[in-house]
Design a protein that fits this description.
Helices cover about 60% and strands about 5% of the residues. It contains four helices and two strands; from the N terminus they run ββαααα. A two-stranded antiparallel sheet has the order 1-2. Strand 1 and strand 2 form a beta hairpin. The chain is flat.
């Protein structure tokens, strides 16, 4: 039953006594999913914009009109090159507005955290009052 072709036995593996090795499985790399935002966090204040993003917003509309053929990525990279070319004195108005935005955020965050701490107490009181009135 044994046949040799180019030095390789054509006898079935079961008869030859070799173990059947299962094929290797490719490693599956799971992507980390984005953390889901709790309903409470949806009402949280927006984070402050950096000086660059404020500059980007101000220049984006102008550049779109100047260069309508550029894609969004090319447009942003062009504005980024402009930002790098600015001197520190030219960047100061954007940095000042970024600081103001950060102060706004910190104040809103403080108020939000304070409100978040107070909210569970009032909800519990309302639930207890509701359950007491139901029993009568």
């Amino acid at each position: 039953y044994q046949r040799r072709v180019h030095g390789i036995s054509k006898m079935p593996k079961k008869i030859r006594g070799e173990k059947k090795i299962p094929p290797r499985k490719a490693k599956v790399i799971k992507k980390e999913s984005k953390p889901q935002i709790a309903k409470d966090e949806r009402n949280a204040p927006k984070r402050p914009l950096t000086a660059f993003f404020i500059f980007l917003k101000s220049r984006q509309e102008v550049c779109k009109k100047e260069f309508p053929t550029l894609s969004a990525i090319e447009l942003v990279s062009k504005i980024a090159r402009e930002w790098k070319a600015l001197s520190p004195e030219q960047k100061t108005p954007y940095e000042n507005s970024s600081r103001k935005d950060k102060e706004r955020y910190l104040q809103e965050k403080k108020d939000y955290d304070q409100q978040k701490k107070e909210a569970p107490d009032t909800e519990l009181k309302q639930q207890k009052a509701f359950s007491i009135s139901d029993s009568y």
